[in-house]
Amino acid sequence: MNRRGFLTAAGGIVAAGLAAPALAGTVARQGAPPDCEPFFATHQGGIATAAQTHCYIAALDITSGNRTAVASLLQRWTEASARLTLGLASGQDSGDAIGLSPARLTLTFGFGSGLFIKEDKDRFGLARQRPDAFVDLPHFPGDQLIEAQTGGDLLVQACADDPQVAFHAVRQLIQLAYETAELRWVQSGFIGRFKDKETPRNLMGFKDGTGNPLSSDKQAMDQHIWVGAEAPRWMQGGSYMVVRRSRMALEHWDRMNVGFQEQSFGRQKSSGAPLGKIHENDPLDLEAADKDGNPVIPENSHVRLATAANNDGVRILRRSYSYNDGVNFIAERWPPWHQGMEYDAGLIFVCYQRDPRTGFIAINDKLSRFDMMNQFVTVVGGGMFACPGGVAKGGYIGQALFESA
């Protein structure tokens, strides 16, 4: 008996539609835990959900050429995810999360461009279902992408308030993918336990996410984040996710004075307020000038280039995490602050939008050319993924796509 057959015999893998009644019965008997985020919903969790403190992202390459096998994998993932987000064991569970709460676990799934066309081949007969907005990311100035850390046919984003819960969830899903897909790259991340509704800070010490549309603002979310009727049915209610593994030259950054850092960002480091203002959410005054006639917010500062006011009013939802993967050896000890090692740390930039052509791509084309922050940040990996709409009970992730003609 092969691995899949063994797991099926063990009762760990069943189609989502057949498993739903059993899962519903379990919830009815035990009740959903208080720190549980719903899995079945109009939109996938982990997008508009209030950010948890840890994430674990995994990209996979599909190894099977069988469309039915991929759909079956997505069915197994759906059933497993519904259980994992409730804090329940899933399939042949590894057991390393026994006794832990769900910790607000969310699981978000995305499809890479290779699901539609790979090496000029329509592997699964889905090419006609690729949305017009789902274009390939261009190569931006300054990118130093590592192939092994870039792209992927499928993506899983696990976010939780416990790092072990997030890793555990992805580990179980990967186990269910044996014989259908294999890991391409993974990345873990974290943010601090900031107060409720307080903007997290990245490793440069600045608040990251100020200006995001509020998830409670339905009009703004529908306009900027959730995909509408312009896309195929399977993508409606979803969002396009861009992931960028951005390595920070922290040794260099830490030697800059705070004034220079604030000029680079265009915001005050302590309060997060725009330069010339007092509070974090004060509007940017792009016309303000100092006594010498220079802009208070520099022309090439990050916030000026990225603000909606300079990008035709387009907004994206940033949901980034910091990462720290140890140190790298540096052969040349120059500049003088290099001591033979430097941090392999930075930002897992994650953003969601309704249309990446007018969202991230347009904004980053400007940032990659003119942003003062470029001297401190190098993008080495990531990709773009189409995250379909949410899953209804009895259905599975991407069902409308895989059951399309």
Description:
With 405 residues, this protein is of the alpha+beta class. The chain is built from 10 helices and 9 strands. The protein starts with a helix and ends with a helix. Mean pLDDT is 91; it is low at 1-18.
What descriptive keywords fit this protein?
single chain, 405 residues, alpha+beta, five-stranded antiparallel sheet, four-stranded antiparallel sheet, 10 helices, 23% helix, disordered N terminus
Number of domains: 1
Helix/strand order: HHEHEEHEHEHHHEEEHEH
β-strand percent reads 15-25%
Shape: globular
Question: Which segments are poorly predicted (pLDDT under 50) over 5 or more consecutive residues?
Answer: 1-18
Give the structural class.
alpha+beta
User: How much is the radius of gyration in Å?
Assistant: 22 Å
Mean pLDDT: 91
The rounded distance between the terminal residues' Cα atoms is 33 Å
Total count of strands: 9
What percentage of residues falls in helices of 4 or more residues?
10-25%
Largest sheet: 5 strands, antiparallel
Give the count of helical stretches.
10
